[in-house]
Fold this sequence. Notes:
Elements: H1 2-22, H2 29-36, H3 40-43, H4 50-71, H5 85-92, H6 96-111, H7 114-126, H8 131-158, H9 167-185, H10 194-215
Amino acid sequence: MENNISTKQKILDAALDLFSKKGFTAVSVRDISGAVGIKESSLYNHFKNKQDIFDTILYDYTKDCDDFFLQQNIIGDNMKYDISNDQVIFFSNMSDEQFVDLSMNIFNQFYLNPQVIKFWRILAIEQYNNPEIAKLYNKLLFEDVLNYQSQLLGLLISKGILIEADPYVLALQFYAPIYLLFQKYFASGHEKIEIVKTEAKKIFKNHILHFRKVNSNKRGGE
């Protein structure tokens, strides 16, 4: 049983790596089995086909996201990304240090994690070949993030914690530099270079502190 689990994970890891370099369409089951070092027929003992492999990668990514956000108190036990009053209190009472720690945890998990970066690359490549992948890429990388942030920022504005502004525009202002950092430093293959990670982290920290200072009513007079 141990060997079966190990082989299945090797298939997923090899597929993720190949998909991230060539795209889902250009990679064959033979390519994946060759990378793992098993016969093509053996791969079918673990997965129905190439699509099944990708669906498993997507499921694992989604589960990891949910587990992480639950651990960070960003979503509730219902696993929904709706903003609750408890979450508003949680965010509004944060010190700068706590805000930086949470933001850095998210940045590390979703923009510095090599496995996640590979997943983003697959979607980025395949969005031009598959309309469904294009929808998924837009949903995961833009819609979900901006909708969640605009909901949260809107409630913080209504509580008088942040300055009066359009919540969605404020979400764009917060998220755009983060996405730019990801594209500049990691989307093209530099994620293994620690000095690049250190530089990106420094810029990211300065950005979130600047955003918090400029848009917070509590710090408006400072």
